[in-house]
Write a sequence for this structure.
């Protein structure tokens, strides 16, 4: 993978929509990366020679929603958006969980939100206004017609994936799909090919996670409700008492994952999304390997 040979700070956001920036990269065959971060940690983007095309900021159930209701200027997620949007495009996660139309309008207006990852959320309540991500997307489009909206795809679902639901989100106004992390490259390839077979041709960005410890693997399996092959899990477990060997194995696996996806997708591969879990040590190491750092 080749990174654009630009000087530090050159890749900065401009007035173009995020989806337009992505299409420009795809058309010009300039690979890009993006990364997910969570509020509460300092993200030193200035230390990166090549900035991510965008960062996505997690919402964390309704923790940020409750904070916004108490004080709109003390919402951790929106504070992170304000901190970094002069450096890079920021994709704000928003969840249906307990969100009202009034909340949504306040968040979009006061946060000056231009880019959204709209999710249904793992939690729900019987009284919440938005029951599906498509409902949230339609309301966002009314409030911010030029917003770039992403939705999530779930490669691990395989044949159980509800293509009708995914297409409903795109019909509601979503522009692109970010794939949930998956340790199995074949699942990613199969999902993207199935998208094309089902008439879905928007940008699809595969996502992956590079663990730094065996505990971090167990954490993402629990939080993201994903699966990992028992044989691969056993390999990680084998190195859990040797930090250096564990990290090297994790990087080798990430490299193998990326190589396999690139080989199979060819022109349908143009970038990747890193689920950092705010662990920037492993993130920096994979970026350095692919000449992004």
């Amino acid at each position: 993978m080749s990174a654009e040979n630009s000087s530090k700070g050159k890749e900065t956001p401009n007035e173009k929509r995020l989806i337009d920036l992505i299409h420009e990269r795809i058309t010009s065959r300039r690979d890009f990366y993006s990364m997910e971060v969570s509020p509460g940690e300092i993200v030193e983007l200035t230390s990166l020679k090549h900035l991510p095309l965008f960062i996505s900021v997690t919402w964390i159930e309704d923790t940020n929603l409750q904070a916004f209701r108490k004080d709109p200027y003390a919402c951790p997620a929106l504070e992170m958006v304000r901190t970094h949007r002069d450096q890079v495009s920021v994709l704000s996660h928003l969840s249906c969980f307990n969100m009202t139309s009034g909340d949504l309008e306040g968040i979009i207006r006061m946060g000056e939100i231009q880019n959204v990852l709209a999710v249904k959320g793992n939690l729900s309540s019987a009284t919440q206004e938005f029951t599906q991500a498509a409902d949230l997307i339609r309301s966002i489009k009314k409030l911010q017609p030029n917003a770039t909206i992403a939705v999530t795809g779930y490669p691990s679902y395989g044949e159980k994936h509800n293509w009708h639901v995914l297409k409903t989100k795109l019909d509601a106004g979503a522009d692109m799909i970010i794939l949930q992390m998956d340790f199995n490259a074949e699942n990613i390839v199969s999902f993207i090919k199935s998208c094309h077979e089902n008439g879905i041709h928007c940008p699809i960005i595969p996502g992956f996670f590079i663990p730094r410890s065996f505990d971090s693997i167990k954490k993402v399996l629990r939080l993201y409700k994903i699966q990992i092959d028992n044989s691969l899990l056993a390999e990680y477990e084998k190195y859990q008492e040797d930090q250096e060997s564990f990290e090297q194995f994790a990087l080798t696996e990430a490299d193998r994952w990326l190589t396999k996806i690139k080989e199979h997708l060819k022109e349908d591969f143009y970038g990747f999304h890193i689920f950092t879990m705010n662990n920037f040590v492993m993130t920096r190491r994979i970026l350095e390997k692919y000449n992004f750092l």
Summary: Residues 243-265 form the longest helix (23 residues). The radius of gyration is 18 Å. Confidence is low (pLDDT under 50) at residues 1-12. Strands lie at 32-37, 54-57, 89-95, 115-119, 148-153, 176-179, 204-205, 207-208, 271-275.
